[in-house]
Amino acid sequence: MYELRIYHINPGKLDLVVQRFEQHTFHIFERLGIQVVDFWVDCSGDDTLYYIVKWADKAEMDEKWGLFVDDAEWKAAYADSEKDGETVHTIENHLMERLAGAPQNWA
Questions:
Q1: Long-range contacts formed by 35-38: CB under 8 A, 24+ apart
Q2: Which residues does the UniProt record annotate as the domain NIPSNAP (predicted)?
Q3: Per DSSP, which regions of 55-87 are E strands?
Q4: Can you tell me the distance from the alpha carbon of 21 to that of 74, in angstroms, rounded to the nearest whole number?
């Protein structure tokens, strides 16, 4: 199972959110066993960030997101990055299953 996460970021806050991912979030994900497949920012000028996480099943997703939101390092990094105002105004998530017949070597 895959989860597509789309972050709609408040104007002028994209660099701050990217920095938070690079300096904190990716490390926390790795420590907690959250497997990110890939990560993108929008090329059209929208302040939007996209990433896909691979999960064994919904139970694993629920467990690990619970660990993440309760993580002390995450809470500190989040609070620090939000001190001058909210960075992300909307988060979308979509659960997906890979099409069995799709080629395995697409990248």
A1: 37/2
A2: 2-97
A3: none
A4: 10
* Cα–Cα distance, 4 to 73 (Å, whole number): 24
63 CB-near residues (< 8 Å, 6+ apart): none
Interval 60-106: pLDDT, tens: 999 999 999 999 999 999 999 999 999 999 999 999 998 888 888 77
- The most distant pair of C-alpha atoms in the chain lies apart, rounded to whole Å, by 47
| Paired tokens of 2 | 């895959």
Alpha-carbon dihedral sign for residues 21, 10, 90, 5: negative
Read off the tokens for 102: 């799709």
Could you say which DSSP state residue 10 is in? P
The tokens of 64 are what?
């690990």
d(CA 28, CA 15): 19
